[in-house]
Amino acid sequence: MFTLKNLNLFLIFFWISFCDAQIYDLIIKNGHVIDPKNNIDSKLDIGIADGIIKKVSNHIPSENSKKTINAEDMYVVPGLIDIHTHVFVGGTPDVFANGRNSVAADNFSFRSGITTMVDAGTSGWRNFPTFKKNVIDKSETRILVFLNIAGNGMSGNPILTGLVDEEYITNITSDKKYNQQDIVDMDAKKTASVIKENNDVIIGVKIGHYEGKEIIPFERAIEAANIANVPVIVECHLPELSLENQLNMMRMGDILSHTYENVDERETVIDEDGKVRDYVIKAKKRGVLFDVSHGGYGFWFNQALPALKKGFKPDTFGSDLHKFSMNKGMKSILNIMSKYLNMGMSMNDVILRATWNPAKIIKRKDIGSLSVGNDADISVLSLLNGNFGFVDAAGYKIIGDKKLQTELTLKEGVIKWDLNGLGAKKIK
Q1: C-alpha 287: how far from chain center
Q2: Which structural domain range is residue 152 located in?
Q3: How confident is the model at residue 183 (pLDDT cuts 50, 70, 90)?
Q4: pLDDT at 280 over 70
Q5: What pLDDT band is residue 163 in, cutting at 50, 70 and 90?
């Protein structure tokens, strides 16, 4: 007898069969999937069609796909997010904004498993349109932006007065009139306006590299962020503001960069007794976030190791990628992740800080996970075993036996990096 219950069972069976029979453009099979957002840590297959993640399951038949990639003995994770980079590349020497100290995103992203780079204040409200037109719109890497409170971002050589004098103004061209030391050009309302007009790309405000004695730049960055409802990322180069004062001014969701730096211009997070400073712990408890921001000089083992032992972990693994840092101890976000693996952090915690944590912080929950319906931004990583050295900013190293390597990177379902030909056809 055919009942309503039988009909429901038939429809359920038909729907399951239909889903399994659909044609995928690509299936990644047999990989160890780690997706912190969705609490996934197991061997699964991922089906991709039209650049979108369509299914994450124990078994997706290979015959239902145009291409199958075997990720046996590899980690399959969301496309990595580097929350601190400098990619406003251009032809101007000796500067970062539209300069040659920045690097081209596509040259360094996919080979490191990165699908999203966040530029940390290289541009400001004045020159962001140039950045967007010349770099962001032309890059295959997804580029998001912390907008510098300085109108022209990281432009020009420092002028230590805080205000640009009249002689300087009259002797340079108008497009170079303002630089990152010019308080007059730190306009909170204009910064917030540009953020709101470009909120698909601009996700926050940047303050840093100011050498004057005023706290006005910091206050204006916070003001702009309040107007636009975005976080602030704080660089350490604010000599008139102690680390404690900086953290006290920061709000829940704001980010301190170069957390583990040990330089004269700022207190360290670790005190003379090897403990995390009380005011640092208090800031973390009230929601201030801490990024590695490794850079060329921003990461010291004498800070990071005792901090980790005390349970003070970074929230994100920003690399501070630029021309100098990539050739020093930083090298790549994978090197930072490998450092922390060898320092004792679990693989799940490492992946979390390179994927879902930064996505949440910049309020982009459409990236940083393998949720069905998301763009198929995926990194396939191998874990090498051997004898490896990892270097900090002071020239010290630790020896480790684990090192992450990018095997495959997909951006919106398209293979952008394939180290060993996982997606290539074999010669017959």
Answers
A1: 19
A2: 78-378
A3: confident
A4: yes
A5: very low
* Per-residue confidence (pLDDT) for residue 94, from 0 to 100: 82
* Helix, strand or coil, per DSSP, at residue 303: helix
Question: Does residue 363 form part of some domain?
Answer: yes
pTM listed for this prediction: 0.90
Domain count, the chain: 1
142/21 Cα distance (integer angstroms): 32
Q: How far is CA 14 from CA 7, 19, 20, 60, 175, in A?
A: 10, 9, 10, 16, 65
In a domain, 266, yes or no: yes
* Residue 231, in any domain of the structure: yes
The pairing of beta strand 114-124 with beta strand 202-207: unpaired
Distance CA 277, CA 42 (A): 38
Handedness of CA 359, 360, 366, 369 (dihedral sign): positive
Whether residue 248 is contained in a domain is answered as yes
What's the confidence (pLDDT) of residue 348?
98
Cα–Cα distance, 205 to 150 (Å, whole number): 10
Given a cut of 70, is residue 423 above it in pLDDT? yes
- HEC-encoded secondary structure of 133-169: HHCHHHCCCEEEEEEECCCCCCCCCCCCCCCCCHHHH
Q: What are phi and psi of 52, to 5 degrees?
A: -120, 145
Residues with Cβ < 8 Å from 137, sequence gap 6 or more?
Answer: none
For residue 379, give Cα distances in angstroms to 81, 127, 262. 11, 32, 33
What residues have CB less than 8 Å from 300, skipping those under 6 apart?
260, 261, 262, 392, 393, 394, 396
What is the CATH classification number for the domain harbouring 190?
3.20.20.140
Give the pLDDT band (50/70/90) at residue 173: very low
Cβ 82 vs Cβ 233: under 8 Å: no
Label residues 97-133 b or e (16+ Cβ within 10 Å = b).
bbbebbbebbebbbbbbbbbbbbbbbbbbbbbebbbe
Q: What is the DSSP letter of 250?
A: P
pLDDT tens, residue by residue, 355-377: 999 999 999 999 999 999 999 99
Amino acid at 332: S
Residue 95: Cβ within 10 Å count: 22
